[in-house]
Amino acid sequence: MPRRNDIEHILIIGSGPIIIGQACEFDYSGAQACKALREEGYRVSLVNSNPATIMTDPEFADATYVEPLTVESVTKIIEREKPDALLPTLGGQTGLNLSLDLFSAGILDDHDIEMIGAKPDAIKKGEDRELFKQAMVEIGLDVALSFSVHSLEEARDKLPDLGDFPIILRPAYTLGGTGGGIAYNREEFDQMLRQGLDASPIGQVLMEECLLGWKEYEMEVMRDYKDQCVVICSIENFDPMGVHTGDSITIAPAMTLSDKEYQLMRDASFACIREIGVETGGSNIQFATSPENGRMVVIEMNPRVSRSSALASKATGFPIAKFAAKLAVGYSLDELQNDVTKETPACFEPSIDYVVTKVPRFTFEKFPETDSTLTSAMKSVGEAMAIGRTFKESFQKAMRSLEIGLKGFDAGKLTGDELDSSMVRAGVKRPSAERPQFIFKAFEIGMTPEQICTQSGIDRWFVEQLNQIFLLGKELAGLSLKDMDTESFRRAKEYGFSDRQLGDFWSCDPSEVRKAREEAGVSTTFRLVDTCAAEFEAYTPYFYSSYGDENEISRSEKRKIMILGGGPNRIGQGIEFDYCCVHASFALREIGYETVMINSNPETVSTDYDVSDRLYFEPLTLEDVLEVYHQEKCDGAIVQYGGQTPLNLATGLQEAGVNVIGTSPESIDLAEDREKFKQTLDELGLKQPQNETALLPEDAKAAAARIGYPILLRPSFVLGGRGMFIVYDEKELEGVVKEAFAVAPGKPVLLDKFLEEAIELDVDCISDGETTVVGGMLQHIEFAGVHSGDAAMVLPPHDLPEEVIEVVRKASHALADALKVVGLMNIQFAIKDGDLFVIEVNPRASRTIPFVSKAIGVPLAKLGAKVMAGSKLRDLGFVEEIHPRHWAIKESVFPFNRFPGSPIVLTPEMRSTGEVMGQDEDFGMAYAKTQMAAKPSLPLSGNVFLSVKDSDKEKALEVAQGLASLGFSFYSTEGTARFLNDNGIPSESILRISEGRPNVADLIKNGKVQLVINTPLGLIPRRDENDIRSEAVLHGVPVITTLGSAFAALDGIRSLKDRKFSVKPLQGY
């Protein structure tokens, strides 16, 4: 059946801000769906609160709403747009839950909107733990023994029926295992169950027999209205059950299933998708098998495009989201052509002749107080993927793609550590980000594969493979470069050893290894990802590197530019940089260049097969990048768009003969080098805070004494404020200085005089070397001291006089000229007592570029790429700064609920995972929208817990007076309560947590507090303060830790009470 003609207008709901468990893979799926549906002639309306996405670019939908993902907000959009259908399966758990809420509220029926792709009953059956279990039992599939409970009492009653601890807890309708975990005793059980009931939108938790140590598999499946089903990809978890699949190393295709076991799992997958009732589209089904007796159980199903769908798409070249959208509007799989082969229909199951390894990326260093053990609740913030002809090659490439100092399968940070056998055994046993490194150490101390397998629960086949890598590495380390012949090189490459690893074995440069290897006839070749194991010709140039096989690169005479992506997402370097890379590709293709994308992140739009002319799924190391550059005969490379990862390669690339286009590496270095930069500022007559550079911790102490406290301490050449601290005295400095030096070993640490209560401003500019235009000025809502990636920002500046803005504008132009910027530039200014200070300049794309582009309606990243390639801003029609007539506010989203025990405070070290955007003609309403989108929303009535440090009390009084006039009541700790009462604001004194009961935590738990305003006394909140904030986060109560945010919240609440909430598409601004 061809496309449906009874619907004309489709609404797509996005997934909102990047959070743990729901990252940029849904930008990839949403962008694909928008393209697919518009290709078919449908009108598409899109709603998503995340400005850092490609899908929210105005050209991807007919009406693009960057608005909160709430029932109220989407109802307004529905009333305005009047869509015929809603596609709920492409916005992750957020989009699915919101679609169900709209259905349950009767809004879809009221407006005659059909849910396509998956019906409400199918979603409920797949997501409700009890309904799913019953459905599986009815069709004869085995499930783990489990009970769905709605209260602690009910759960305790069921405990005897489940047998002994440990017990797995899985809340319903959540993502990434939120609120779940493994309870090993009754105390943990009670605590986790309460958390799970709070986390589940329907207050339901599945308590399940523990299958710890079982093998875990996933099947990515599609179905059409003709009931044709296909398996797109089988995926096997390296880690046994007990680790969330998003936190496990995973391998595609499944490596240890026999053909019979695979067919049984395939049949069970089809039975599952049919029974749940997913009529069209993709689903992800998870299985576990017992290593002892082969018993197979169904764990769960996602009746939507999932995180694993992006991995399966990139692993096979099969565009799951695109086909899911087309199936939802009436097509069948046999009517859709495979884009890669252009011969086979989509009902042909992909077949691959290589191995794909995905490795998660963690940032526990940002949350040092939290337990880093991996459990069924997801904690990773990103992932890298690698492709190789063998598992060994794929695994080693994946390890070096992580960008955490690993060269492959090695001991990493454990290298040289003298660990006793009990520590190594414990490291092998405990699921953690470092477990592969502990396995390497286990081989070093003589543990056998069998012992490691028993200790870890990891399948013997994988352990044997890693042992073979270890043994060959040991053998190679005993040789020299002269000893290597063709067969030795070929074997080393089949095992995934890079030239750098081999060079380290033999104490020589990787270039010498490369030269000897090529002379021995072992050259790097590139192979196609073709969906069909080379059975048909592939038309999509999507490549991975290997050795010894036929080279499948087809030559082209067109001019080519390489774009270096950002690698795995991490806090400080995420989707915003991928957004810029995608725009670079679009822009360069428009002006006649072929684009060559190199990246290792499977979640992204940049690694979609049709975004660039050629895609290389490779680690972002100097060795791998140079190989692609030279074989493709590129004319230039862009390193300024992928964040710090490609910038760190800039000098090495240039030295190797790469033409780095745009701002030169010398200019980038000038901005990073403290002494050279100081000289530049002096020549321009611009100030910066008094500063010094230290190469040793002892130097830092002396430098701080000369500058005077408070001091801002930060390592050089890092992104995301890693190791950045504000210290108020020598004792605080001694506590953190070693950590600051450890972040970038061998690099200097920078010390700046910290400008307390200064106003911070971010400025994004574009320059072509002759003309400079300010793209946007963003004023931080919080005072100085909060990392720009975590700060709430408003464009245009909301309370700066025009004469100050003009000074900032002139300084920005002067800096662009002095640094010879060609492309994008970000400058951070501070304004203190009327004086302007330059904090830092980054002559590259910043993380605010997508937000600014949406706010002003100009694609800055696209223009920047064209300028780098030689275009002039005058010819591109962008020579004047744009002043929006509305307020655009960016707010950050934090993962504090994932890392219990970590300080809930905004500091110079970035800890947010994502962002949302609020826009309105009214400042307060724009801010209120950001809080609705970031969650929890601002309250309109109730009680405020207010407790602030003494220096904040006068300003906090203004906030309290405003909130009191809006009808709020107050609870405060003793000192703040006395101050408020003395100033005419009635406030009830309440005990701190450490002072006895009932205390503020009890009030929060009992629903008596609707807003917490609590400013910290020092750099790290005291334990009492943090416990209060943790309770508020757990119970969905807004927490405000800065006075700037408190004033903005007051404006927001006032606007929500006085004004009508309205929505507007980007195309309407």
List keywords for this structure.
1069 residues; alpha/beta; seven-stranded antiparallel beta sheet
Strand content: 15-25%
> Main sheet: which strands, in order across?
14-13-10-11-12-15-16
User: Regions with pLDDT < 50 over 5+ consecutive residues?
Assistant: none
Helix content: 25-40%
- Structure class: alpha/beta
Number of helices: 36
Q: How many beta-strand elements?
A: 38
Mean pLDDT across all residues, rounded?
A: 92
Structural account:
With 1069 residues, this protein is α/β, with parallel strands linked by helices. The chain is built from 36 helices and 38 strands. The strands form seven sheets. Strands 14-13-10-11-12-15-16 form a seven-stranded antiparallel sheet, sandwiched between helices. Strands 31-30-27-28-29-32-33 form a seven-stranded antiparallel sheet. Strands 17-18-21-20-19-22 form a six-stranded mixed sheet, sandwiched between helices. Helix 18 crosses helix 19 (510-519). The protein is globular and about 80 Å long.
Secondary structure elements and their pairing?
Blueprint: E1 9-13, H1 25-39, E2 43-47, E3 63-65, H2 71-81, E4 85-87, H3 92-104, H4 107-110, E5 114-115, H5 120-127, H6 129-138, E6 146-149, H7 152-162, E7 167-171, E8 181-183, H8 186-199, E9 205-209, E10 215-223, E11 229-237, E12 250-252, H9 259-276, E13 281-289, E14 296-302, H10 307-316, H11 320-328, E15 355-361, E16 382-388, H12 391-401, H13 421-429, H14 435-444, H15 449-456, H16 460-477, H17 486-494, H18 499-506, H19 510-519, E17 524-528, E18 542-547, E19 560-564, H20 575-590, E20 594-599, E21 614-617, H21 622-632, E22 636-638, H22 644-655, H23 665-672, H24 674-684, E23 691-694, H25 697-707, E24 711-715, E25 725-727, H26 730-743, E26 749-753, E27 759-768, E28 772-783, E29 793-795, H27 802-818, E30 822-832, E31 835-842, H28 849-856, H29 860-868, H30 873-876, E32 887-893, E33 914-920, H31 923-934, E34 943-947, H32 953-965, E35 969-972, H33 974-982, E36 987-989, H34 1000-1005, E37 1011-1014, H35 1023-1034, E38 1039-1040, H36 1043-1058
Parallel strand pairs: 1-2, 1-4, 2-3, 4-5, 18-21, 19-20, 19-22, 20-21, 34-35, 34-37, 35-36, 37-38
Antiparallel strand pairs: 6-9, 7-8, 7-9, 10-11, 10-13, 11-12, 12-15, 13-14, 15-16, 17-18, 23-26, 24-25, 24-26, 27-28, 27-30, 28-29, 29-32, 30-31, 32-33
Helix pairs in contact: 1-11, 5-6, 13-14, 15-16, 18-19, 20-29, 25-26, 31-36, 32-36
